[in-house]
Design goal:
The protein has about 400 residues and is an alpha/beta fold. The chain folds into 2 domains: about 260 residues, Type I PLP-dependent aspartate aminotransferase-like (Major domain) (Aspartate Aminotransferase, domain 2, 3-Layer(aba) Sandwich); about 130 residues, Aspartate Aminotransferase, domain 1 (Alpha-Beta Complex), CATH 3.90.1150.10. The protein is about 40% helix and about 15% strand. The strands form 2 sheets. The chain has a 7-stranded mixed β-sheet with strand order 1-7-6-5-4-2-3, with helices on both faces. A 5-stranded mixed β-sheet has the order 8-9-12-11-10. Helix 1 runs antiparallel to helix 3. It starts with 10 loop residues before the first helix and ends in a 6-residue tail after the last helix. Bound molecules: pyridoxal-5'-phosphate. Pyridoxal-5'-phosphate binds next to helix 4.
């Protein structure tokens, strides 16, 4: 199916058909081009390929047909002009930022970022003479104040990891554009289905495909989406020459993951809502954070800019770290892992794992107390998940 006929298709259809390019053999499934290089019919064709006179694959660091199918499918799904896939989500964030920034530039970011994104902004960029400033993502006055100074790039994540705090993407994009900045949205927690950052004004969207897009805990991958001119002129030379390219094998698995993305995200979101409601009624739980619940502090914003409540739930045990560890250790079905977006439900204790390195002071600002657990809801029957959570809560030792 030619790609220019696909732009009117609905997401569930794009997830199955978007970007598919069949070979002359007419295979049903997407072909896996597990090849590092490509051959030319003649020395002249090789020359013409390198000058750009003809279009021909050269080397899988620059481009590969299986990877191109993934990029095209993601671009169609997101409504983006162009996409480049990368080896990991962090390679995507790094490439999106470092391809664009130079010494003397300025970056503003929301404080509530995935740990490695935080490190890039707080530690890596300043090494290259790039000024960086963090704001509380939910506070528009802080964004406005930060944008009073000319800014090159803005990085935000919404909902954030692990507390599921939201940023008003449209309002921040308006402020950022007045300050001259491009806005990069890390859209992992919302998935391409539950939030459309480009429609809210974003310039660049990044994904860790490791999460819901694979969705089965198998491979790492990432993607950067944006305008064609920016992707081809700014991002592509950086990727081509620095090499964060994704393996065609992993790209192929991600293509197959995308086919079931809507089914999986819908099922996990439904279950997450049920689990959040169950947890909110339990006396051992001090607080539940779920964008789909009316008691989320930014529920109105969630309803404005998201079409689903997310597959993740954060909750805080009244008994602190002791209770959180006891609960996690008592779970029989739900496993302890720092990953998320898997078909298997997973719990994480952010304060001692994913967010250990951000430090106690920063954790306190983000509300990541020692009692907080992040739950990534998978594809199990929600009644079994609730049974498991109930038995783990039922066996919590009394605090001495
Ligand atoms: C996992 C994750 C990343 C990093 O992705 P990797 O594939 O692990 O490199 C970045 N941002 C968010 C929000 C994530 O959840």
């Amino acid at each position: 199916m030619p790609n220019d006929t696909q732009t009117n298709l609905r997401p569930a259809t794009l997830l199955v058909h978007g970007g598919t390019q069949r070979t002359q053999f007419g295979e049903t499934a997407e072909a896996l081009f597990l090849t590092s290089g490509f051959i030319y019919d003649s020395a002249e064709q090789a020359e013409d390929t390198f000058t750009g006179a003809v279009s021909h694959y050269q080397y899988s660091r620059f481009g590969n047909p299986t990877v191109a199918m993934l990029e095209q499918r993601l671009a169609l799904l997101e409504g983006a002009e162009a996409c480049r896939a990368t080896a990991t989500g962090m390679a995507a964030v790094h490439a999106a930022m470092l391809s664009h920034l130079k010494t003397g530039d300025r970056v503003v970011a929301s404080r509530a970022l995935f740990g490695s994104c935080y490190w890039i902004v707080a530690t890596l960029l300043p090494r290259y003479g790039i000024a960086t400033e963090f704001v509380d993502g939910g506070d528009l006055a802080q964004w406005a104040q930060a944008m009073a100074t000319p800014t090159t790039m803005v990085l935000l994540e919404s909902p954030s990891n692990p507390m599921l705090d939201l940023v008003d993407i449209r309002a921040v994009c308006d402020l950022a554009h007045q300050a001259g900045a491009l806005v990069v949205v890390d859209n992992v927690f919302a998935t391409p289905l539950q939030q459309k950052p480009f429609e809210l004004g974003a310039d660049i969207v990044v994904y860790s495909c490791t999460k819901h897009i694979d969705g089965q805990g198998r491979v790492l991958g990432g993607a950067v989406l944006g305008r064609k001119a920016w992707v081809e002129e700014v991002l592509q030379p950086f990727i081509r020459n620095t090499g964060p390219s994704i393996s065609p094998f992993n790209a192929w698995l991600l293509l197959k993951g995308l086919e079931t993305l809507a089914l999986r995200v819908d099922a996990s979101t439904r279950s997450a809502g049920q689990v959040a409601d169950f947890l909110a009624d339990r006396p051992e739980i001090a607080q539940v954070r779920y964008p789909g619940r009316a008691d989320h502090p930014q529920h109105d914003l969630a309803q404005r800019q998201m079409t689903g409540g997310s597959t993740l739930v954060a909750f805080e045990l009244a008994g602190g770290k002791h209770a959180a560890f006891a609960m996690m250790n008592a779970l029989k079905l739900i496993a302890i892992s720092n990953n998320l977006g898997d078909s298997k439900s997973l719990v994480t204790h952010p304060a001692t794992t994913t967010h250990m390195r951000v430090g106690a002071e920063e954790r306190a600002r983000l509300g990541i107390t020692d009692g907080v657990i992040r739950l990534s809801v998978g594809l199990e029957d929600p009644a079994d998940l609730i049974d498991d959570l109930a038995q783990a809560l039922g066996n919590l030792p009394q605090r001495s």
